[in-house]
Amino acid sequence: MPKNDLILRAVRQEPIERFPVWLMRQAGRYMKEYRELRAREENFLSFCKNVDLAVKVSLLPLELLGVDAVIIFSDILVPLEALGVKVEFLEGEGPRLEWSGAVSDLKRYDPEENAFVYEIIRRVKKAQDEVPVIGFAGAPFTLASYMIEGRSSRDFRNTKLFMWDREYEFKRLMEVLVDTLHAYLVRQAEAGANLLQLFDSWTNYLSRSDYEEFVFPYVEELIERLKDSTDVPLIYFFKGSSSFLDLAEQTKADALSVDWSVDLSLEAVRRRKVLQGNLEPSVLYASDETIRFKALELLRGMPRKTGYIFNLGHGLAPDMEFEKVKLLVDTVKDYRIN
Ligand code: CP3
Fold first, then answer.
1. What is the pLDDT of residues 281-291, one digit of tens each?
2. Which residue among 22, 42, 76 is best mutated to probe the pocket of ligand 1, counting the most ligand atoms within 8 A of its Cβ?
3. Which end of the chain is more exposed for a tag (fewer CB within 10 A), N or C?
4. Structural domain boundaries in the chain
């Protein structure tokens, strides 16, 4: 058991002295130490597969920021390679994926192909016993959208047309992704992950009815199957949170990570589930005073004494200043619940 188990107590709704804090994308280009290690591998995927480097990068936020949990360094697109999708990261342009669009062309997922990810978890745990380790995966819809768009998108037009015009094929794809992610996350839990997080980063582009029909049943099933297979607590992060909060609450997720569309001071009392989030990331571009003010506003408005994990409403960006991120983490750690 890690020395600092605040986040595990928070997720079980047990008493805590202060709210735990970690940040999505906490290991990344905004850190010069990350950029130095990153320069040792030519491409991003080989960097993710270099276990020594991935372990070092995973630990940077613990060493430099003093966060209350370490998320393993990897990427949500990693398991797609094992399905036979060609995945590349172009410098400065982001991901490029190639797939025929036919589910029958996908390979059967063998979780052994991602053995390096489980090894990173084991090694991060061995390297420190300070804080819990978070394993993660993309949620089925967010991964499907990358497979269909082939890159980051502004409007997810291809994904929506696929969903509406090729409904049967889309749903088959979602089923394949549920099976894949189940096997992948169970292996992460077996390797010793103390928490698991699912990233549904692009659901904010969907209407309520499309989320209800094309996304929710698969997230619900995946989480249900994970809960049957492992006791490791699970966090579901989904954008467009205010539109889908009532649905997300019906899943068996232990905690919901929400974006800034939700007013936590209201939701935290109404909702039974543990909440994580939801500071607007752009606050980190503001003055130190504003950062402190916004963080304290969120913390003071939090009507609960447990069952809350501080985080952003989405990830840190590469152009954020390290000192501002540190100020945010320190502000949360200095805040005492009374
Ligand atoms: O949180 C962490 O610190 C752990 C590592 C992590 C990364 N990506 C590292 C990364 C995690 C949890 C992710 C998740 C991820 N990846 C998501 C979901 C979270 C979110 O932000 O919505 C998504 C949508 C991706 C897909 C992805 N990976 C994109 C679009 C890009 C390119 C971004 C860009 O600006 O180039 C990546 C690459 C990536 N993943 C980087 C890092 C640190 C940067 C690549 C580099 O260093 O060269």
1. 999 999 999 99
2. 76
3. C
4. 6-334
